[in-house]
Amino acid sequence: MTGERVRRLGWTAVALLALVGMVLALRPGADPEADVLVAGADLAAGTAIAELSAPQLPTTRVAWPDGVALPPGPGEVPADARLAAPLAAGEALTWAALGGAPGYGPAPLAPGERAVALPASALGSSALSLPVGARVDLVSVAGSGRAGLLVADAEVLVVSPPGDGDGGGLLLRVPVADALAVAAGAGFATDVRVVARPPGERGDGGLPMAGGGPEPTGEVVGSSPDLSDGAGADP
After folding, report:
1. Residues 6 or more apart from 26 whose CB is under 8 A from it?
2. How many domains, the chain?
3. Residues 100, 64 within the same domain
């Protein structure tokens, strides 16, 4: 074997080794494994995660696609979490199924809460400038001029911009006890306004509730004689 042939074989081997190295470097690695919660049976929307037994929501180690956000593992699900959507048997419990990861958008409705839609035509277009997650008071003004609080500390869930034939509006999270008052107040009050609250404040702030106390009569106190006992009556 001549020296020239040996050199050619050596360069060929080096080229093959370099090609193999490139192929190995470009080959995608194995997906990482993670412990995830998987539905052991079909679960309906609204199911409380804390009430499920281990067979209903077992922990399974699976290969999770690289680059995709991991679902909540055991011990990472909030204690009061509920399914925001149905979960079929064999499906992994993801943050999307719980209505979103904590801190990313509003949480799903809890028992005792309602979502009330209010059109911008009843609230004023400035209400559409509120961000999702803002806490607000809803104040109504009746035709008599009396103002009152419809609901305090409601959460803005959705802000719908005006569209074709639709002026937009807000979707508010309110306690079930206030849902009817909010819906009726928005429909029958002369004017309804959304008042933004400072972060962290709770309670009604001392504002009078709508419908509380007698309606104003327009009379000045003491302007008319009291005729209940005959005083001031014509003889």
Report:
1. none
2. 2
3. yes
H or E, element range at 60: strand 59-63
Residue-wise burial string across 183-214, b where 16 or more C-beta atoms lie within 10 A, e elsewhere: bebbeebeebbbeebeeeeeeeeeeeebeeee
Q: How far apart are CA 157 and CA 76, in angstroms?
A: 24
Return the amino acid letter for 161: P
Amino acid code (one letter) for 60 = T
d(CA 61, CA 35): 4
Contact 115, 137 (CB under 8 A): no
Quote the CA–CA distance of 66 and 92 in Å, as a whole number. Answer: 16
Q: Given the structure tokens 């199924």, which residue do they identify?
A: 97
State how far the Cα of 29 lies from the Cα of 158, in Å rounded to an integer: 41
pLDDT tens sequence across 70-122: 888 888 888 888 888 888 999 889 888 887 776 666 777 788 888 888 888 77
The CATH code of the domain that includes 69 is: 3.90.1210
Q: Is the pTM of this model over 0.90?
A: no
Q: Which of 63, 88, 107 is the last residue of a domain?
A: 107
- Cα–Cα distance for residue pair 98/86, rounded to 1 Å: 10
- Identify the domain boundary among 92, 107, 122: 107
E strand spans, 103-231: 113-119, 135-141, 147-160, 169-175, 191-196
